Amino acid sequence: MKSKTSSYMLGILLWLLCGGFVQSACAYNMEDLRRLKATGSCPQCDLSSATLEELQLFRSNLSGANLSGANLSRTNLIAADLSRANLSGANLSGANLSGADLSSANLSTAELSATELTLVDLSGAKLERASLEKANLLKAKLLNADLSWVSFRGANLTLADFYKSDFWEADLWGATLWGATFWNADLRTAKLRGSNLDGANFEGAKLSIDLAEGTILCDTILPDGYIIRSGC
Predict the structure, then answer these.
(1) Element (H or E) spanning 181, and its range?
(2) Could you give the 3-state DSSP secondary structure of residue 171?
(3) pTM of the prediction?
(4) Low-confidence ranges of the chain (pLDDT < 70)
(5) What domain of life does the native source organism fall in (predicted)?
(6) pLDDT on residue 136
(7) Is 48 exposed, middle or buried (0-12, 13-18, 19+ CB in 10 A)?
């Protein structure tokens, strides 16, 4: 009898901690997690610090969800709606977010190394101090994005659009920026040495470095509209 009573009390305690009144003890909402796993979608849900690695969330609706600190490594998020989601501190390394909507999302300090981000929309997103090393951002859209202190080392930024984005202290060492657009972007403190800038368009951008120093240049458009062809 004593054993049954103890088990019952333990169950009540766990409910109070994880599904009842003290949500912060488990961070995420248990009902929200069950809903996501059952339906594949959970907009506006609290999934903070949840373990979601390797899940199949193709076209999932997670708009406005709290995924801060969540583990989404190697998760399939192709064409998912993560607009306005909080992904600060989340682990998205190796995840596939091709065609996903991350507009106005918070990805500050998030881990996105080797993440697939082809055709992703990160317009208005906050990525301060996030790591996108060796990530693939082919044809990605990052209009008015906060990219301060972001590491793009070795990343593929081919044909990406960075219109009016802020690259304060961003590290683009060894990144490929072929045909990327930086119209009116702020790159005054960005580290571009060793990057491939073939066909990149910096028209109207703010630059305080010599692009010819340690970079690969061919048909690169400078802020004043002048086209460099020295490296062709």
Answers:
(1) none
(2) strand
(3) 0.85
(4) 1-26, 209-214, 231
(5) Bacteria
(6) 99
(7) buried
Can you read off the two tokens belonging to residue 11?
């169950």
65-71: long-range pairs with CB below 8 Å, 24+: 68/106, 69/27, 70/28
Length of the chain: 232
Sign of CA dihedral 90, 94, 95, 97: positive
69: left (phi over 0), alpha (psi -120 to 50) or beta: left
Backbone angles phi, psi at 166, to 5 degrees: -105, 115
The pLDDT score that the predictor gives to residue 209 is: 63
* Spatial distance between the Cα atoms of 96 and 79, rounded to a whole number of angstroms: 9
Place of tokens 């399939």: 76
Predicted local distance difference test score (pLDDT) of residue 208: 74
Residue 219 three-state SS: coil
SS3 of the chain: helix, strand, coil, percent, to 5 = 15, 15, 70
